[in-house]
Amino acid sequence: MNIYSNILLSHNSSILSSTSNILSSTSSYFLEQSFDPKQQQSSLLYFMMGAAVKYSSRGPALIPRMKTKHRIYYITLFSVVLLGLIATGMFQFWPHSIESSAEWSLDRRSVHDAPLVKIPVSSPIPERGDLSCRMHTCFDVYRCGYNPKNKIKVYIYPLQRFVDEVGVSISSTGLSREYNDLLSAISDSDFYTDDMNKACLFVPSIDVLNQNSLRIRETAQALTMLPRWEKGMNHLLFNMLPGGPPDYNTALDVPRDRALLAGGGFSTWTYRPGYDVSIPVYSPLSAEVDLPERQPGPRRYFILSSQTAIHREYRVELERLKEENGEALLLLDKCSNLSQGLASVRKRCYKGKVYDYPQILQESSFCVVLRGARLGQATLSDVLQAGCVPVIMADSYILPFSEVLDWKRASVVIPEEKLPEMYTILKSITHRQVEEMQRQARWFWLAYFSSMKAIGMTTLQIINDRIYPYAARTYEEWNNPHVVKWSSVNSPLFLPLISPRSPGFTAVVLTYDRIESLFRVITEISKVPSLAKLLVVWNNQNKSPPEESLWPKVAVPLKVVRTTENKLSNRFFPFDEIETEAVLAIDDDIIMLTSDELQFGYEVWREFPDRLVGYPGRLHLWDHEMGKWKYESEWTNEVSMVLTGAAFYHKYFNYLYTYKMPGDIKNWVDAHMNCEDIAMNFLVANITGKAPIKLEGYSDFVQVHSGRSLGYVHSVASKDLNLHPSLLHIPPSELKRVSVTPRKKFKCPECTAIDGLSLDQTHMVERSECINKFASVFGTMPLKVVEHRADPVLYKDDFPEKLKSFPNIGSL
């Protein structure tokens, strides 16, 4: 039965709908299983092979002719045997697939089929609940242990029917549809385990969502009969409708010892911070009514009140505000001329005019959510679904998931005593702020309120983050719509507590149609010992990539990704195939780098994972005559950018570039087909405040001749104040000043100066325009000028090549 007694008719119709959906999905499953492309291919192959057998009008050439009646007899017998074998196979194997894929499906979890358990009168009763419980005092984290996925394991107790000694059930409703959906979601998730010995968290199959349907004492005794109860340690209970008349306590009244409580109406007096989880009161209308998303902006009404069971003093005050502000405020109430049931739930009235609910909520900018008999109200979920900004007036109410969600971005919280000033307070909010809150409110509902599954998974994720804090979601991942995709990506700005799972780097090669040089680049990169994967971004929509047999044979995975549009920003898209933290961005014409140089570059990046580490360096200068920034590619001692035609960086910056690039820079780059590398340099420098690391470049530099474990040294100068601390205390005896001849490795040997793109004057002007455009959007110049270079130890010394860490670095 449903946990809401006042919408029984809605629940019954939902059960009929769910039953029909189950039947239709089951038939669809049979239809899907009957078509297997592999089986079809095998059958076709068998048919083609059979076609080679020589047949005549009398049958196969090797089979003697049978009489018609005998042939019919054998055909019939063969058909019966075949059907029997098929039926036997389905009987043997079909139930196992159901158990493994849908162990907690609705048709299997029937209260009537569950074993009966009698509760003795003398069964112990748990303590009411320790308000001092915290994760470090009442939760055994050692049960969770370590696992590579940093996921807690949740065990669901088998369904049992608890009755007292005279056979009366502990619940008047049995298992509600909502709790069934919740358990199904958990059992289908990565959190679930069917081995209680491996479990970190235990969820009883006893439905306590609605306290009104429970016998308090008997339910508490049933909890103590669970095999691993142990005073509620590591047990999680879900409750949405706590308390009962006349006081309506804000937490579940069932004694529960040390069990965690995910409650839907906590107050500051009953909530245990960092232990309990405040969850929303689920609205059944979420499953019944599909409200299409509406664009943020001004609405027909400014304020709307739709609750039907609020205190009289609140309604009197709202009516006064209505008189003062007229049509800007719509005050709805229940319809007295409609019969109880489904119609009354989905309708609201004002002076005899009937409005559809919750559709009417989309017509208002702000929607009032007042406390009722309970602090938690399902109206909050309806309001968020409509994209209406909730105005919450419920003193001491712990907002749902407030441990991780920033409600200031999606709602307005006003003390109850400020209700007379509500209109003035809301009028002070700018239109832009209102639109942002409308957008955030709708996203909160989609991500965390829309279903029992969303509520359950959010609850488990919060508990998971407490147990594995080093793998916890960040504020941005909880509150920003796009950042939720970054959950597996760690920022390089902070040191991880555990080492990365995927060592090495992924080479991302951007190409269009230069097949010969692309294959040369792939062949050379494949020789790098630290290469983990090759990803070719095919940016040509008019031409297909070469056939698989034509590609170079490499020892690492190679995948070609075809893009839908020819954009330079495609090289910085956060592809799922990039599993390593290190990314090498390289063009398909960079054929001059050796495997030693690339390996050396990767090892330097490991020392500076928050910076761009690259080979060709560039500089930005201020043109005093023009009053603008200027792009400079001449060889100088200074560098402020490295080109991403050959550069290492952390994959975290792919997400920032794709989803968080300021202003219209990303679209501007795609439209002009230029400067994506400058944009990435701006982004990284703005985030880190640091200059890039240039490899094997050109400039006067100071070289360290002391041995290092990585086999390289840093060429440093006093201008770089962001270097590794170990480089700032170099004894003078280890330093000597040398003059280095510039390496001309990045000049195309087959090209003339006139044809070179980097030397083309028009190209240089466009690059200068990019710098000025980006500086304007960022509002500052984030690029840092530095005199610094990293080179291998002994790369210039006369020393046997076989003793050098990187012998094939190239001559000066």
TrEMBL record:
Top-rank lineage group of the source organism: Eukaryota
GO cellular component, one term: Golgi apparatus
Pathway the protein contributes to: Protein modification; protein glycosylation
Localisation: Endoplasmic reticulum membrane; Golgi apparatus, cis-Golgi network membrane
Chain coiled-coil ranges: 304-331
Record's keyword terms, sorted: Coiled coil, Disulfide bond, Endoplasmic reticulum, Glycoprotein, Glycosyltransferase, Golgi apparatus, Manganese, Membrane, Metal-binding, Signal-anchor, Transferase, Transmembrane, Transmembrane helix
Main location: endoplasmic reticulum
Bilayer-spanning residue ranges: 72-94
EC number: 2.4.1.224
Biological role: Glycosyltransferase forming with EXT1 the heterodimeric heparan sulfate polymerase which catalyzes the elongation of the heparan sulfate glycan backbone. Glycan backbone extension consists in the alternating transfer of (1->4)-beta-D-GlcA and (1->4)-alpha-D-GlcNAc residues from their respective UDP-sugar donors.
Family label: Belongs to the glycosyltransferase 47 family.
Protein name: Exostosin-2
Lineage, broadest ranks: Eukaryota, Metazoa, Chordata, Craniata, Vertebrata
